[in-house]
């Protein structure tokens, strides 16, 4: 059974999304592998702080060309769409926990590149904005 202090700590971490923030920072650190990790982390935190006031340009591991490459891997014959299952698996694989489970095209089991990119960008924006309460 958790103590009152442990519950307070858990609530604090959840309220301020500290675990998500640390996860994102750690992922960026491993992805970029900067020579000066402390300076890199400070820069990322400064970018997050700036993004908080502008509501855009959150630091993120994936850009549009990365999303297009992921889609291309899932659509090697260039049909122009992927299945709903592929869409969900891809978004889970890039670390998104919350996204539209039935986006445009889901009724026909055909998710287009534009829908995939939109949903991925929206999810990444929410994920990158972890410091927001």
UniProtKB/TrEMBL annotation:
Recorded superkingdom: Eukaryota
Species whose genome carries this gene: Huso huso (Beluga)
Gene3D superfamilies attached to this UniProt entry: cAMP-dependent protein kinase regulatory subunit, dimerization-anchoring domain
SUPFAM superfamilies: Dimerization-anchoring domain of cAMP-dependent PK regulatory subunit (SSF47391), EF-hand (SSF47473)
CDD domains xrefs: DD_EFCAB10 (cd22976)
Name of the protein: EF-hand calcium-binding domain-containing protein 10
One Pfam family this sequence matches: EF_EFCAB10_C
Domain EF-hand per the UniProt entry, residue ranges: 62-97
